[in-house]
## 1
Amino acid sequence: MPRVALYPGSFDPVTNGHLDVVRHAVALCDRLIVAVGVHPGKTPVFSADDRLAMARSVFEPVAVEAGCAFDCVTYDDLTVAAAHKVGATILVRGLRDGTDLDYEMQIAGMNETMAPDVHTVFVPASPGVRPITATLVRQIATMGGDVSPFVPQLVASRLRTKFAG
């Protein structure tokens, strides 16, 4: 039975931290599905279609190189429902620090109660990407700063275009 993993997130924007998680995740599964969350209460910088396209462009080559099947989807329901929809039994979550662990453990516990067949796997961030957050990247970009150390080149270009003023 193939190991199918779902890596959910808003990916607004895709960061080098997300890329780091994908590099680890493709070694853990036979098929990785990146799920771009669409939340009605949030106003993302990039549309769901833009985030999906960036995620596919950045992550798919990593999966292909690792011999891991790959797909990107959007979802607007519970993460465990999205996992069931695509046949995933593994949820991949990245951890930067203890604060992330505390938060993610709560979510993992709730998810396990709702879907005992879906298991959360935590991937610790590599040291070089631990300080990166999409929130900080957005703040730097909106203020005209250089985000290239924190995001893939494609994303840096898209952010420059988005916030060119």
Note: The chain is about 45% helix and 20% strand.
## 2
Amino acid sequence: MNRDTMLQKLQSHEGIWDILIIGGGATGLGIAVDAAARGYKTLLLEQHDFAKGTSSRSTKLVHGGVRYLQQGDISLVLEALKERGLMIKNAPHLVSNQAFVIPNYSWWDGPFYQLGLKIYDFMSG
């Protein structure tokens, strides 16, 4: 995608945009994709390159709400898992499982986390 070519297309565009989004970070891009998928004439403006600002500095981790399981907030876990599932479905080339280590500080931590993660795996489908 050539920026100059895109700017020329923008200047020659006739008609009215349904939605104007300023900022091509994660949120702006997500809104633009959603709006365009719904059939809206969508214009996304970005000062620099896409995802150059805050989005370029994120950890890029997609979590499914496992930390909310410990708090007992099951509805939030299910919501996060649903969103994670949508990302896996819509962009499987960008989402992959990541192994991680959970430190155990007492004898009960191991079985506690193992049980919690089994429940989490069950909830995730």
Note: The beta strands are 19-22, 42-45.
